[in-house]
Every structure is written in structure tokens, then in C-alpha cells.
Design a protein that fits this description.
Blueprint (H helix, E strand, L loop, with lengths): L3 E5 L9 E5 L2 E5 L14 H24 L3 E11 L9 E10 L3 H11 L3 H8 L14
Antiparallel strand pairs: 1-2, 2-3, 4-5
Length: 139
């Protein structure tokens, strides 16, 4: 189980920037200037997208290490299309650049493994339940 704590970051005048404390790290989120924020940090959708990109890169790196394959590192480019989000569709296009002296079989296997990363599976196969309550109410 994981717990994070989000509070208002008082360093911006617009009051939209948020501070996220998670697993001993602090990150921030904001919204664009056009949406009323200061555009000082990634937005929530950006963090959602980044979790997928990071998971794919880390999963491939760990897999290649276990196999003893010469994968130096993975670059991930991700493009999102939220144009139909209100209709329940959010599209993510992920392009992987594999760096290292890999043969074609290894490259093909790594591509297949990328879609098995935990966040990809969570986003595409899990039933996610979200329960929201006021903090002073019993869980």
C-alpha cells in the first residue's frame, strides 16, 4: 500500500500549484497559465503519462539486466491525445529507442515486454476503484 500527501504549495501567487510528498520525495504539480495556474510544474495528466513512460523504461532495463543483454538505456517518447477524453477515450502513443548492441530477437522481445510493465497493465486491464471522502470522516 502506498500513501501520498498533497498540499497547496504557497510559493506561487495563483494558489494552484500543489506539493506532493511521496515515499520521501517531493514533487509538484500545477496547471497551465491558460487554465489559471502558473505553469510551473507538470499537470496531473503529465504525471499520469510520465508514470507509463518511466515504468516501460525501468521494466525493460531490469529485464535486460536479468537476461544479461547489452541494453545501455531506453529513451521513451510519449504523445497523448486527450481530444476524446470526455467520451472516455485517452490515447497514448509510446515510441521506444533502445540503446545498446542488441540483436533483432532481443529488440523484438523487449518491445513485447514493454507492454507488460505494471503501469501499462494497470492502465489497460485493472478495474480501478476510487473512493473519495472528507479527511475528518471515518474510512
Amino acid at each position: 500500500m502506498s500513501t501520498l500527501h498533497l498540499t497547496k504549495d504557497t510559493t506561487t501567487a495563483d494558489g494552484m500549484r500543489q506539493k506532493i510528498d511521496l515515499a520521501g520525495f517531493t514533487i509538484h504539480t500545477d496547471v497551465s497559465i491558460a487554465a489559471g495556474g502558473s505553469g510551473s510544474a507538470p499537470g496531473p495528466h503529465d504525471l499520469f503519462d510520465a508514470s507509463l513512460a518511466a515504468c516501460k523504461a525501468l521494466t525493460l532495463t531490469l529485464y535486460a539486466r536479468r537476461k544479461g543483454w547489452p541494453l545501455d538505456h531506453v529513451d521513451v517518447s510519449l504523445t497523448s491525445d486527450a481530444s476524446a477524453e470526455r467520451e472516455g477515450k485517452y490515447k497514448l502513443d509510446v515510441a521506444l529507442t533502445l540503446h545498446g548492441n542488441l540483436d533483432e530477437t532481443q529488440r523484438t522481445q523487449l518491445l513485447a515486454v514493454a507492454d507488460k510493465c505494471p503501469i501499462h497493465k494497470l492502465m489497460t486491464t485493472a478495474t480501478i476503484e476510487v473512493s473519495t471522502r472528507l479527511a475528518d470522516e471515518a474510512a
